[in-house]
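I have been asked to look over a protein record a colleague put together. Alongside the sequence sits a line of tokens, each denoting a local backbone shape. Please read both lines and tell me whether the tokens look consistent with the sequence. I do not need a full report, just your reasoning and any doubts. I have pasted the whole thing underneath without changing anything.
>
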Amino acid sequence: MIGFLTNAMEQKKRIMIYYLDKDNNVTQRIIRVMQIEETKILAYCYYRKQVRGFMIDNILSFGIVKEEKSGLKEKQQKTQNKSNQT
């Protein structure tokens, strides 16, 4: 897991985690890892819109969030706009 978190941090990738919070509730978060410590990570949480600490042992599962390519989306919108004009 540390290797995955380190890689995500170095590549500035958003990741989705399932996390066991202090009240033993399972929560889903999308985060960007900023710092890795021995027992926790510091990450920007897109749900809370702030930097939060997450205990590594409480991360139940994780994965990369697929980024949408903005250039492709813009090109598709331009193509669609041109076809609507004719």
Notes: The beta strands are 14-20, 26-36, 40-45, 50-55, 59-64. Helices lie at 2-10, 70-85.
